[in-house]
């Protein structure tokens, strides 16, 4: 039996993709590209090629338990770890680490978001395997840094150093999303890489890091360390998880630890965090750079650079005289908005709730 | 018993309102303004105040027989006159005239489109009554000319003369839709009026006019003159109606006859022939001149002069950064198109049929 495990984080609400993504149906559950598999399912499919299915975990919010079971019937109930409240990545990762440690204290874990796009899956899996091998032998917290192809302002960056550990390099700093000028400097420097949010570590390394950098979280989980992977886990989590602080693993641990290593990767990666990134990665584009998501029937006239997303694949979009807009038709909401103003969508959703209640969330 | 009759023409397909209006559900059947009554039903409601329901006829295409029965259950089957093929207004009016003549050779008839908007119904009905009184005593073909409120290029115009018949004036010419410069001259002249498409005449006057100006139509119907208003009418029409030429009453008779009179009216009238005219007449507009048709839930940002028409009243429209567009979401089609380019919509519909077949017509 392998010591390799996978944790897929699937609790996000993805409000930036409203109205496609809803509180009741976040983006990781959506089949954005019309492939027949959601982003979550694609992520699962990738990992199941190198990790035994029984070693794959999902952490998600209780709200999405039913959706998870529907989308991933391959998983046993015990492989779906439910968060009773919405926290950030650090509590989510701690929960999974404690659970897996109770099963296998030698576990090597790869942690992955559920809503990212991987183009070259073979290359991706080779890199994951390299990371798993590294952390089997080394007390290292590993992240995958994507070779940047443009001065993207929508991603965080990782700065690597000259200190090597095999193919891996020691990480100097993590940075937040830069403005364009800084992104350009990063891009041209050759030592900055996109922070993919993909992490690898041995379970003992990450638990040690929690105890060192986020002791309030580890102290809380230590209260129930005999209960993980038992019938008492659920009620323990229900009671104690809500006390965890809302903090990201990047901020809470990765930026502070001095055993963080990076593998430079180039497997075609995108964080589908924005409509703009979807436009970048969309596979169905016409000659006028209109990108079609799910939409299979469309007529466009004097229109360029739009994202046209109709949830109903039988529906026809007829678009004339429109440039660089998002047109998203999903359920009981039709959204039309300039691509450059997509950051306002969260506010639109909030306004809708204020005016009409929660029915459009 | 009264000699007054009404003929509502309800056979149009209204393709300019696609996708709201479909071949299977033309605009006259739509409740455009969310009043709970379609344009057809509103037309019926108006006339039923001054004309006995049993004297009200609908002429429509066979395709819409079922819709007619649903929308106007007040009518007996014999009051729905079915055209087996799509012709223009002249054959439609001839059919109704022959049918009514067989019932009552002294009938006075008002003929009306089914898709026009009347604002001041009392004023409208007073004018109709004036017309019915005139044609009872005079061999006159009467039309209602609407006092123009702007140099509209979307309507035909009627030029009146100084020759009077009571309140009515003899018509000098009918003109097609003018360009803007000509429309401005018409508007300022004081002697041009919008052609409302509302006509009044005694049944003998109109039958005489058909015999004089459209003898091929009258000769065709004369073949079955004993069959109208009998059980044989239906099969006679099925056989002979398709031979009628495709010609409008304006072109075929009104422009040629020398007994055409006009009443100048001002009851708030609109031919809902275009999205633009709907925008003009829409009752629900916000401060930015966005007009909402059926749409009851909407958020608009940096957007002015749009027509927002969502068929589903529970659906939310969120529109940002858009000026002077038509946004029409109906059934399996979403249309977004510049208001100034609405004349292209027929072509869009034709393109959709070419590319995908008839499912979107």
Would you mind describing this structure in some detail?
The structure is a homodimer of 361-residue chains. Chain A has helices at residues 39-47, 65-71, 89-103, 121-137, 180-189, 203-213, 215-222, 233-240, 249-254, 275-281, 345-356, and strands at residues 4-9, 56-61, 80-83, 108-113, 116-118, 141-146, 157-165, 168-175, 192-202, 260-265, 269-271, 291-293, 297-301, 307-310, 316-320, 325-330, 333-338. Helix content of chain A is 30%, strand content 27%. In chain A, helix 3 (89-103) packs across helix 6 and helix 6 crosses helix 7. The first copy, chain A, has eleven helices and 17 strands. Chain A starts with a strand and ends in a 5-residue tail after the last helix. Chain A is an alpha/beta fold. The first copy, chain A, has a five-stranded mixed beta barrel with strand order 6-9-7-8-10. A four-stranded mixed beta sheet of chain A has the order 12-14-16-17, covered by helices on one side. Chain A binds chain B through residues 19, 297, 299, 301, 310, 312, 314-322, 325, 327, 329, 332-338, 341, 344, 348, 351-352, 355-356, 360, and chain B through 19, 297, 299, 301, 310, 312, 314-322, 325, 327, 329, 332-338, 341, 344, 348, 351-352, 355-356, 360.
